[in-house]
Design a protein that fits this description.
The protein has 734 residues and is α/β, with parallel strands linked by helices. The protein has five domains: 196 residues, Rossmann fold; 195 residues, P-loop containing nucleotide triphosphate hydrolases (Rossmann fold); 103 residues, Winged helix-like DNA-binding domain superfamily/Winged helix DNA-binding domain (Arc Repressor Mutant, subunit A, Orthogonal Bundle), CATH 1.10.10; 88 residues, DNA polymerase, domain 1, CATH 1.10.150; 100 residues, Arc Repressor Mutant, subunit A (Orthogonal Bundle), CATH 1.10.10.1390. It contains 35 helices and 17 strands. Helix 12 links the parallel strand 10 and strand 11. It starts with 7 loop residues before the first helix and ends with a helix. Helix 2 packs across helix 3.
């Protein structure tokens, strides 16, 4: 590709303003620039797009980027074009363009201006596009959302399967395939389909250590969910249902129970859908009840819980949907309700599909059942599914699931498994699980009567256990490959090789199943609410919610985001200290004189009324203890920035590291004092990027570094993001 000797670190700074790479980014780029195929597995927010954007910008020719979503393509094109003073560095080529626009794209590629060409796979097949691309220099091909290639992936697109032959017809160039979710099977399928089995593979961890996973039996589900949400008042959450009808019904049920919820699914008209989504983003609504249509373009950082009313059809979908919780690194609770009947419904739905699709769908469902019924650490099970090892005792997030906190009681079911296998074998492998259970439990139905099963020795042999017990044995026998479900005769159970070896006495592996989960429901509920109790201790939760509401009103009135008024930790401190004067507000954590002067009066009056109404005795000594630690460097920093001194020189002047200086500056602006560092930023950063950051902050619900790195981490270093945040708080809030 002609750029092997390029110093990509200096190019990174030049184009994106970063001084360091994330994770494997640098190695990935070096391998691609050396002309080798690359496969990248990196969860959302890890910086995937930079892995092909920078190599494209510094390589001769144009890189083709295949992407499935037109909206995402447009966002990326706008972002890349924002990096350059030249127009047309990145283009989209798809059905949305008219003839004139298409000719402009062709002209920019021919003249060497365009470095990235984003196309949908459907567009790439067009003969006129293919003929044109054959005639121009191509640097490499990037395939984003590569799991769409695999029939085993959760978002399969048939048109992706032909990409290899199309790429070969256009040019002999390296390929980089990227995805945020793929099992080893999907990864293997992608590599084979693209003819890139020799590609270098880079994989980041899929472990989200801040998420807590819990599965409950689907008993009194409506009551359980209302109770769960009410214990987390004011926090944002998503409830996923599989059908549109259930979304509508359950959103209404939450509303009549006093919960601020809105529905979201593809069947709603565009205006309602957008209004409901925006309401959720702007904190006008706490809960969205949705089908999987919701969340594709959502990056709300503070979703605190994701509830699955129905289990999804695959563990990839489950991972992606639960992954919308706790993106800011804070609390994220993932609660799923499980009923084997739901799985049976999904199996019936699959029965109408073509055989190959049915087979894949059933295997994916089998993994879902395995996860729901496992007695091992759920995090360990999930990560193993994605090909990752996890230590359930010492790993990051080890105690963050229901099985780890409350290990289920296991029973040895090996002899009962053998009885089941013997029954299946004896009757010629011709019954479905429902009929086998009727036989074992001694319940007559049309099948038992027509085969005269009530006269056999097996009729009623398992009466000593519940239906659920035998259902669990059958499901686990499926999951652990003792039995298989016949595809052609939907649902009929057959003995596998492993099952036959067990019958022959050759295979004697332990076969344990968990006791019925409903016995532990109270225990599970107590575990799930434990975090809430810990989080709320020492704080007046009722006042906290009312202060958040007041902050929202003040922010709306001022046209700025709520967090720029007072941060959450400041509100929390107010609920402990109960300040009732402007002066006392000035002593609260994270509040300085400027903030106290501007907003203190309104908040102090509100708290004074609350204190009087609830007969609260304030301890003045406590308020005094909370006097903010005024920085000894504050005056020096303010005077130095007024004189427009270089920030590095200011840091040296007080023997501070640059990080320590930024901390001091953050403290100054968050306490309400203005600090003008425009003169410094203008020499360091592109004007458009500064403007883009300011616009984002105005709309954002959070100023956390996690959120900002997620949005700007590919364009700005952490230090630059912190400086821009200082500018925003100073300009807008102070």
């Amino acid at each position: 590709m002609g750029t092997k000797n390029t110093d990509i670190s200096s190019e990174l700074k030049k184009y994106f303003g970063f001084s360091t790479y994330k994770g494997h980014q640098k190695e990935i780029m070096e391998v691609l620039l050396a002309g080798e195929d690359v496969f990248v597995l990196m969860p959302t927010g890890g910086g995937k797009s930079l892995c092909y954007q920078l190599p494209a910008l510094i390589s001769p020719g144009t890189a083709i980027v295949v992407s499935p979503l037109i909206a995402l393509m447009k966002n990326q094109v706008d972002a890349v074009n924002g990096l350059s003073s030249k127009r047309g560095v990145a283009h989209v080529l798809n059905s949305s363009l008219n003839k004139t626009q298409t000719l402009q794209v062709f002209s920019d590629i021919k003249s060497g201006v365009t470095k990235l060409l984003y196309v949908a796979p459907e567009s790439l097949i067009k003969e006129e596009y293919m003929e044109f691309l054959k005639e121009v220099p191509i640097s490499f091909v990037a395939i984003d959302e590569a799991h769409c290639i695999s029939e085993w992936g959760h978002d399969f697109r048939p048109e992706y399967r032909n990409l290899k032959s199309i790429i070969d017809r256009i040019a002999d160039v390296p390929v980089i395939a990227l995805t945020a979710t793929a099992t080893p099977k999907v990864q293997d399928d992608i590599q084979k389909t693209l003819g890139m089995s020799e590609a270098r593979v880079f994989k980041s961890s899929f472990n989200r250590a801040n998420l807590f996973y819990e599965v409950r039996p689907k008993i009194n589900i409506d009551k359980e969910i209302v109770r769960f949400i009410n214990a987390r008042k004011g926090k944002s959450g998503i409830v996923y249902c599989l059908s549109r009808r259930k979304v509508e019904e359950f959103a209404q049920l939450l509303q009549v129970n006093g919960i601020n919820a809105k529905p979201y699914h593809a069947g709603l008209d565009q205006k309602t859908r957008v209004a409901n989504q925006d309401g959720f983003l702007n904190e006008d609504c706490d809960v969205i009840v949705a089908t999987i249509a919701f969340g594709m373009g959502i990056d709300k950082p503070d979703v605190r819980y994701v509830i699955h009313y129905d289990f999804p059809k695959s563990l990839e979908s489950y991972y992606q949907e639960t992954g919308r919780a706790g993106r800011d690194g804070g609390e994220g609770y993932c609660l799923a309700f499980y009923d084997p009947k739901d799985i049976e419904k999904l199996e019936k739905f699959l029965a109408q599909k073509p055989v190959s699709e049915r087979e894949i769908g059933l295997q994916l469902l089998n993994e879902v059942v395995g996860y729901a019924e496992t007695s091992m650490s759920r995090r360990q099970y999930l990560l193993y599914y994605f090909g990752e090892q996890f230590d359930p005792v010492h790993g990051d997030g080890a105690m963050m699931d229901d099985n780890a906190l409350n290990p289920p009681q296991l029973v040895d079911a090996f002899e009962d498994l053998k009885t089941l296998l013997k029954i299946v074998k004896t009757f010629g492998e011709k019954f479905k699980s429902r009929d086998l259970i009727s036989l074992i439990m001694g319940n007559e139905n049309s099948v038992t009567k027509s085969y005269k099963l009530e006269t056999t020795e097996f009729f009623g042999i398992g009466k000593g256990h519940t239906d659920n017990y035998w259902k669990s044995i059958i499901r686990q026998a499926n999951v652990q490959d003792y039995l298989t479900k016949d595809i052609e005769t939907y649902g009929v159970l057959k003995i596998s090789e492993k099952g036959q070896r067990t019958l022959d006495g050759v295979e004697t592996l332990a076969f344990n199943i968990a006791q019925d989960r409903e016995y532990n429901l109270e225990q599970l509920r107590a575990a799930s609410e434990k975090q809430e109790v810990q989080a709320a201790s020492g704080m007046d939760a009722r006042l906290f919610e009312q202060l958040k509401e007041l902050r929202r009103k003040v922010a709306k009135r001022s046209g700025i985001p709520p967090y720029t008024i007072f941060m959450d930790p400041s509100l929390e401190d107010m609920t402990i200290q109960y300040p009732i004067t402007k002066e006392e507000i000035g002593k609260i954590y994270g509040v300085g004189e400027g903030k106290a002067r501007r907003y203190g009066e309104e908040f102090a009056q509100f708290i004074a009324s609350y204190v009087e109404a609830h007969g609260i005795e304030r301890t003045q000594d406590m308020v005094l203890k909370q006097v903010a630690n005024k920085s000894s460097h504050k005056v020096f920093i303010i005077q130095s920035t007024d004189k427009k001194l270089d920030l590095e020189d200011i840091a040296k002047g007080k023997h501070l590291s640059f990080d320590e200086l930024l901390k001091e500056m953050e403290r100054i602006v968050y306490q309400g004092t203005k600090l003008n560092i425009d003169y410094y930023l203008e020499t360091q950063l592109d004007e458009d990027l500064i403007e883009e950051f300011m616009e984002f902050m105005k709309e954002s619900e959070s100023d956390s570094m996690k959120v900002l790195i997620g949005e700007f981490g590919e364009d700005l270093s952490d230090e630059e993001i912190r400086m821009l945040r200082i500018k925003f708080i100073s300009d807008v809030a102070n």
